[in-house]
Please model this.
Amino acid sequence: VSRQGGDEFVVLLNRLAEVSGELVRLSVVDGERLTWVARAQGARQGLRYDPDMGSDARLSCSSSGWAWLSTLNDDEGLALVAKQGLGQPDQFGPDAPTTLRAVLDAVHTTREQGYSMTTDTYSLGLSAISAPVRLAKQPAMGVLTIAGPTVRFTAERMQSLTPELLSVASQLAAASSASPFFNLTTDTGEAGTDTGRKPIYAV
Model:
């Protein structure tokens, strides 16, 4: 377990994982990318969703992607999606949006709610809920996500966890100055490197 940036982030992620009983992930905005850098596993038995860390989110069809895009204006968001490319249903989930219009509709809903919810868009049988990690009215510096198997992580269950998700996302934003994960390349607008920024694994 890495202790970079103090223990507060680990404590917050672990708490949300324990409350939800599912996988909690933190991603950070790195230029034009959204990269998963930390996780805490709340599922102790049965089905577990536990992907590799350090990969970039597909913005068009991931819960975390929609949450980040919701903090940008539509033109900026669509430009990022167009540059990365749409995640097609045959490569991601069967319900992945197949047009920029469909992505924008999902982003608008996310913006109105303050969080995103997805089922079968990123992967078949996967549900997720995400909230942007941001200071007041600023673009997101990262995204906090809870993800789990759809058979267990239902829409009702996701809705019930929304208050806790938003609370922890707000606390992460408030503590962001103490974390090296949020000190990337926002001043240059260019994708940074992974140097010195290794994944952390909460326990």
In short: Residues 1-6, 184-203 have pLDDT under 50 and may be disordered. The longest strand covers residues 33-41. The chain has five helices and six strands. Strands lie at 23-30, 33-41, 116-119, 126-133, 142-149, 200-201.
